[in-house]
Write a structure and sequence with these properties.
Elements: H1 2-29, H2 33-37, E1 41-46, E2 53-57, E3 71-78, E4 81-87, H3 93-98, E5 104-108, H4 110-114, E6 119-120, H5 122-128, H6 130-137, E7 141-151, E8 154-163
Parallel strand pairs: 1-6, 1-7
Antiparallel strand pairs: 2-3, 3-4, 4-8, 5-8, 7-8
Helix pairs in contact: 5-6
Length: 170
């Protein structure tokens, strides 16, 4: 009888130790707003199929070279919490005239795992507040990872501009 009790006690101790290890790893690797404030580059993961995520391509009729590859991404849960991300070949018309393009590159799928702590999605904005998150990232180099641009083992990351028109209202 005592032998059974020791086996149960040992299994319970092992379970508690494993639980503590798994729980502490979750805390160590979870994203935080403070962590985002301390990096110079962040990535936005965008899935148009998630609730309140909107993607709008530029008009096909637009003749300007500037708007040729223009895409507007938005997290839009309500009128007071709208964050926009503008993806374009050129940051502005001056860059268009100079021929300076925004950074756009292909990465391996392992990029997602390697950078998971600095890849934000709509859930991160919702949990931490749209305004707080905007002010944490708006002066950083920001890239978007559009789920639709993940093909096989390659991921396209595109440099974007971050906009929040309601964040400056009091």
């Amino acid at each position: 009888m005592q032998e059974i009790h020791h086996k149960i006690a040992n299994k319970t101790k092992i379970f508690i130790i494993l639980f503590i290890i798994l729980f502490s790893k979750g805390i160590i690797y979870s994203q935080s707003l403070d962590q985002i404030k301390n990096v110079d580059t962040v990535y936005i993961y965008f899935d148009k199929n998630k609730k309140h995520s909107i993607r709008e391509d530029s008009s096909v009729n637009e003749k300007s070279e500037f708007y040729k590859n223009y895409v507007m991404y938005r997290f839009n849960p309500d009128p007071m919490n709208i964050i926009s991300f503008a993806s374009n070949t050129y940051k502005n018309f001056d860059d268009l005239r100079k021929g300076v393009k925004n950074d756009e590159r292909l990465e391996k799928k392992s990029f997602l795992k390697k950078n998971k702590d600095i890849i934000l999605d709509i859930d991160f904005f919702t949990e931490n507040g749209f305004k707080k998150t905007f002010f944490a990232i708006y002066e950083k180099v920001v890239y978007i990872i559009d789920k639709d641009d993940i093909k096989g083992s390659k991921i396209k990351v595109k440099q974007i501009d971050v906009r929040c028109y309601t964040c400056f209202e009091e």
